[in-house]
Every structure is written in C-alpha cells, then in structure tokens.
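F.,

This is the one I mentioned.
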C-alpha cells in the first residue's frame, strides 16, 4: 500500500496521540493504518507499509484484537489472516470508551467502594471518609450517566451529540449544585 503524505501524517499523529493515552506508538500506528486501509491487510503488508518488524506487528495486532479494535478474516485460497479495524467512528469511539471503562474506571469504582467501606471501621478520620465518599459518589454518578446514555439507541445518542452544549440553554442558570 502506497502512503500519501496525508496518510503518513494521519498515521504519525495517531501514533503520537496513542502514546499520550498510554498506547505503544507502533500499536497506534498499526491501528491508524488499518483504520484508513481500503482493504484488509496481512501482517506482512503492515510490516512492509510501516517498516516494522514482524514480531512488533504480531504483538501489536494481538493487543488491538484484545481491545476489540481489530479483527482477523480469511480469504479464499490464502492461509494468512487479513486484518481490518473498526471503520465506523461511532462504533470505534464506543469500543474505546467501553474498553477503558472496563479496564480503568470500573476497577477504580470498586476500589473506592472497598476503601470507603473499610474507612468506616479502621479509624480513618471523618474528613477523609467524607472525601472518599464524595469521590465515590461523583464517579458513580458519571458511570451511571454513561451507562444510561450507552443503553439509548444509536439514533438518540447521535441526536444528543448534535445537541451538544446547546442543551445548556434549557437548563437553569446559576452556580454549582
């Protein structure tokens, strides 16, 4: 696959963005390549296009499959796997957010719940207990909100996205609370 300057720029930026999110640069670049590729690509195609070692590509593909961002398909008469990434941006964002929620946010909520419970009986000061409970309650509210939004049909979610900050017009003005 021949990469134009724009394609190279996209792949390089996606790699940089990935490192800021804690994803290996090569993993993010491979994802970017598969995201814009017009056809499924073999591991050898990816190696050649990005000038990466086969072992690096294999490891990255396994990681991307673990995140459910890339899947393998077969083609008739070819024993090799051909890889594709999620093409629909709405599905891609949902997959990333769901994966991060499962790996990062949910365990933090569980840990906060546990330490807030433990703090009731282990001599933790009331001030610290209050802070722990406020943290847990706020994070739980965000998680509950996300779960409610995620259950809505895609069309409704898209309508909410399009409304964006405009919805603030319908809310009462004032301070926090």
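My design for it:
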């Amino acid at each position: 696959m021949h990469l134009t300057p724009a394609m190279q720029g996209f792949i390089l930026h996606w790699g940089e963005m990935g490192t800021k999110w804690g994803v290996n640069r090569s993993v993010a670049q491979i994802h970017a390549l598969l995201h814009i590729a017009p056809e499924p690509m073999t591991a050898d195609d990816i190696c050649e296009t990005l000038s990466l070692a086969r072992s690096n590509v294999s490891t990255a593909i396994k990681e991307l499959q673990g995140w459910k961002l890339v899947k393998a398909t077969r083609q008739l008469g070819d024993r090799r796997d051909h890889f594709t990434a999620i093409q629909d941006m709405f599905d891609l964002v949902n997959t990333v957010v769901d994966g991060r929620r499962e790996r990062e946010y949910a365990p933090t909520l569980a840990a906060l719940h546990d330490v807030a419970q433990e703090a009731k009986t282990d001599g933790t000061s009331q001030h610290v207990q209050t802070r722990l409970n406020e943290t847990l309650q706020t994070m739980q509210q965000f998680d509950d909100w996300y779960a409610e939004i995620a259950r809505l049909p895609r069309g409704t979610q898209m309508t909410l996205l399009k409304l964006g900050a405009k919805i603030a017009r319908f809310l009462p003005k004032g301070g926090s609370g």
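The chain has a mean pLDDT of 92.

Talk soon.
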